[in-house]
Amino acid sequence: MRETEFKGHVVVLPYPSQGHINPLLQFAKRLASKGLKATLATTHYTVKSICAPNITVEPISDGFDEAGFAQAKDVDLYLKSFKANGSSTLSHLIQKFQNSSFPVNCIVYDSFLPWVLDVARQHGIFGAPFFTNSATVCSIFCRIHYGFLTLPLELEDNKPLLLPGLPPLYDSDLPTFLRLPESYPAYLAMKLSQFSNLDMADWIFANTFEGLESKEAGGISKLWPAKLIGPMVPSFYLDGRIEGDKGYGASLWNPLGEECLRWLETKAAQSVVYVSFGSMVSLTVKQMEELAWGLKESNLNFLLVVRESEMDKLPTGFSDSINNKGLVVTWCDQLEMLAHRTIGCFVTHCGWNSTLEALSLGVPMVCIPQWTDQVPNAKFIEDVWKVGIRAKEDEKGVVRKQEVIRCLKEVMEGKRSYEIKKNARQWRQMARKTVGEEGSSDKHINDFVEHLELANKKGDAKALNGYYYY
């Protein structure tokens, strides 16, 4: 597409971690496929890890250009530095395009970075936060921000929390921060700051979809009027309308795809358990031990992903003891694995991206959530969407190997297996339909593109300022 043919120019700015870069980069690709120029602005440390067709990638600074967050070592310090350095370098990026034939007329930014809206306003362009959690989790934290729920949340006599649009939520279903707000104060503050200036935003986007969470989003729509535009999963696995879009285009780790695929090709259809706890979760040594022996003693085939930094938590001699029944790798392409014909179950921490990927690819789940939003995600996987089982912890907070075996057998072979697999197939079809032509997410994205095109034709984003699209 020639520069003069772009309908508008959107800068997309993710929080620089894998679980945030992936969905925002995917949104940028969706927008580019609909005629917008899309520029991904990301930190110097992560910029070299991103390669996506039709997306311009530009660096900005978080103040820790050599090693990113690892260099900062403190969430509060990092966020303050990112705000200070990011604001000025993002402004320079916008100014860089100002006198070109495609000036920026909107910034879509990770909701973890509310200061970006101030930068957008300074330049007279649109600003739209993008939420990477479920509508359910956003509903809960939004109410905390506005003071409708107070922390720590204490439920009397095991009574559930009752909120509009949500099912009854018990202690064991709630984000961990609600019971122990002092455990990660800086991270909690970041979760709540997402809602600090929403009344100034022109659009609000959320990586979920109406078939999945319309009731949950509707229950908080007066405070959080989000447009549900997910699932932000590469097009190859859904509608297939973006040519060559088989991966996210960003990897902070080196996947071992060929080794995994060669091993999987030796297995029968739906006979393999895929196990991964994402890019951030760190299991205790005891939990890793129980999980490992549970997988082995289940006598099922399994592919276990353990990050290099976690490998020493595996039981001594475990990798040598599993023979060809299991494979342990440090990282792999999760989408490619979940889409493989041999995968019958996904053992997951229930991070939102992993949850959406499993739903989009129709893979049943065994849930072992660890903290924050993973806990309510597990609740919905088991009780609302009915596509998996949540493993029960003992009194020490550990899922024992016998429980791992029970859950695997139930999902792969047990009485509930047929129903779970049927539901998983139905959610896969719904995910494909919602991002396909005339699906609800597709319509919301088209409306956004049309408004930016109108502003672009007027030659001034401020011509539509004050018009809030919700």
Automatic annotation (TrEMBL):
Gene3D superfamilies in the record: Glycogen Phosphorylase B
Leading EC class: transferase
UniProt-recorded name of the protein: Glycosyltransferase
GO cellular component: cytoplasm
Pfam families: Glyco_transf_N, UDPGT
PANTHER family noted in UniProt: GLUCOSYL/GLUCURONOSYL TRANSFERASES (PTHR11926), UDP-GLYCOSYLTRANSFERASE 74B1 (PTHR11926:SF727)
EC numbers: 2.4.1.-
